[in-house]
Design a protein that fits this description.
The protein has 511 residues and is an alpha/beta fold. It is built from 19 helices and 13 strands. 53% of the residues lie in helices and 10% in strands. The strands form four sheets. A seven-stranded parallel sheet has the order 3-2-1-4-5-7-11, sandwiched between helices. Helix 3 packs across helix 12.
Length: 511
């Protein structure tokens, strides 16, 4: 997207954001970084970024590191002051009461903020129920309390997930009745004295959901719903978020969660067997489509306050299957190989859980033991078996989403897009049906190689040569393996034959 062209044009959406003050949570996360870049491009007056100290770094130190290291901030190297002047750090923590914000900062937010964008969440699927409740439910409640007091509020935007209602087959663009009262659950968390017993009880509470993340996001939506008659609210539910399509740069990401992890695992020869139904829809959405969709629905909600402005951001209109993804990306295995790979790409799939668990022994465990043995013999620390423990944990988390399918409705999202001008559709692209999947999947691999594996393009030829050598080694190992199997089978059959002969002799002797 041409930056000068974007800055020069005028439109209803861009005019809505120009000069506004935005209170943003989750700004140091994957989507948050993209929100910051897009808001600055839109000409907002200020971004009030909620951030906390982490790993010995102050919020300002964290921000400076992020801005200077991530290529998604396209103008930082040439104009760092543009970012620092626009971003004001609000020292706080989304999991704490009143977000642990100082009185002065709280006063400034209430008196100044026009837009509240709540993108922060605890996205770890295996997190304890207590911590998920504190961050995802209570944190949302605390932010809404502040938004309700804001004196110049245009809209409150909540970034949820399409899987918040994954206990249903068909998911409409509406608020659903909550299975539990979110405020009673918050009270239960705050008053519990035996955390172990609480977590045991929690497993019973969330049994209709695959993890604490999806469960707490569903209750966070209920918290948001209770404010719809008090403030203008917008909710966007993206499905599996992956690398960017084009805005501001193609193929960018900063993590290997979800789909990205599967691609990296397969491309590096680490993930060799995966439990997945290749006939099911792969509900992956590019991150920039989520960003632009969020800004579109927020803009629409600000002027349509009487509607339930909740939209699903999924591939319902432009589906592809996991099998299509697999076949398309395997085409690139020897064209864009990863230099830091463990082995060649050998991505096998099965719909049967027990078969996948059995094959892990041969595809993962035994090779890992052999690799670690080789490392030990070379006086290096063994690490591959430890790596596979993480791979298996990651696979277990994804199994629910790769072996189930949902009917996501998106009529409301279409309605929002229909109100956008032609210019806004160009500069805030969020029409999923316009994605060229083959091109996107190629960009996805290239982006993961560049931004996750940190591999430069000048080593591509070296990576190809290494990949070809490993292919020859792989074939040689297969030949040896099949020869050994054939040898064992032959000898077993020969042994059985000898046994039959012996039995014949014995029978003759008895006669």
């Amino acid at each position: 997207m041409d930056l000068k062209e974007f800055e020069a044009y005028r439109s209803p959406m861009k005019d809505f954001y120009r000069g506004k003050i935005v209170f943003l949570t989750g700004g140091t996360g994957f989507l948050g970084k993209l929100y910051i870049e897009k808001f600055i491009r839109c000409g907002v007056s200020e971004i009030l970024l909620l951030s906390r100290a982490k790993k010995g770094k102050t919020p300002m130190e964290r921000l400076t590191t992020i801005l200077s290291s991530e290529p998604v901030f396209t103008r930082y190297q040439e104009d760092p002051e543009l970012y620092h002047q626009k971003i004001k750090i609000i020292d706080g923590d989304v999991s704490k009461h009143q977000l642990a914000i100082s009185n002065d900062d709280m006063s400034y937010i209430i008196n100044s903020a026009n837009i509240f964008l709540h993108a922060a969440a605890d996205v770890r699927f295996d997190e304890s129920l207590k911590e998920s409740v504190e961050t995802n439910i209570r944190g949302t409640s605390e932010i809404l309390k502040i938004a309700e007091q804001a004196k110049a509020l245009d809209v409150f935007i909540y970034v949820s997930t399409a899987f918040s209602q994954c206990n249903r087959d068909c998911i409409e663009e509406t608020f659903y009745p909550a299975k539990f009262d979110p405020y009673k659950l918050i009270e239960l968390v705050e008053n519990q004295t035996d955390e172990v017993s609480f977590e045991v009880m929690g497993k019973k509470i969330i049994e209709q959901w695959p993890n604490t993340y999806a469960f707490t996001k569903s209750l966070a939506e209920e918290v948001v719903r209770r404010y719809t008659d008090k403030i203008p609210v917008a909710v966007i539910r993206p499905s599996i978020v992956t690398t960017t399509n084009s805005d501001p740069i193609p193929g960018w990401t900063d993590n290997i969660y979800g789909f990205n992890g599967v691609v990296v695992g397969a491309a590096t020869g680490t993930l060799r067997i995966f439990h997945i139904n290749n006939d099911y829809r792969a509900d992956i959405v590019p991150a920039d489509m989520v960003i632009n969709g969020t800004l579109a629905v927020a803009w629409y909600a600000a002027s349509h306050r009487g509607e339930d402005n909740i939209v699903n951001c999924t591939v319902a209109d432009h589906p592809l299957t996991w099998g299509m993804v697999r076949d398309e990306q395997l085409k690139w295995q020897n064209k864009i190989p990863f230099l830091g790979g463990l082995w060649i790409t050998t991505y096998n799939t099965t719909t049967n859980y027990y078969i996948s668990e059995f094959l892990k022994i041969f595809y993962h465990i035994i090779p890992a033991i052999l690799f670690d043995l080789a490392l030990r013999l070379n006086s290096q620390k063994p690490r591959v078996l430890k790596l596979y423990r993480k791979v298996h944990k990651f696979s277990d988390v994804l199994r629910f989403f790769t072996n189930n399918e949902w009917n996501f409705r998106n009529e409301k999202f279409h309605k929002v897009i229909s109100h956008m001008t032609e210019e806004d559709r160009k500069f805030f692209p969020c029409e999923i049906d316009k994605i060229e999947w083959k091109e996107f999947l190629a960009q996805n691999i290239m982006g993961l190689r560049m931004y996750i594996m940190k591999e430069k393009w000048d080593n591509l030829e070296q990576a190809k040569k290494q990949y070809n050598r490993r292919c020859m080694a792989h074939r040689a190992i297969l030949v040896i393996w099949y020869f050994l199997v054939a040898y064992v089978v032959y000898n077993l059959l020969d042994f059985v034959g000898l046994m039959d002969v012996a039995k014949g002799w014995y029978a003759d002797y008895r006669k």
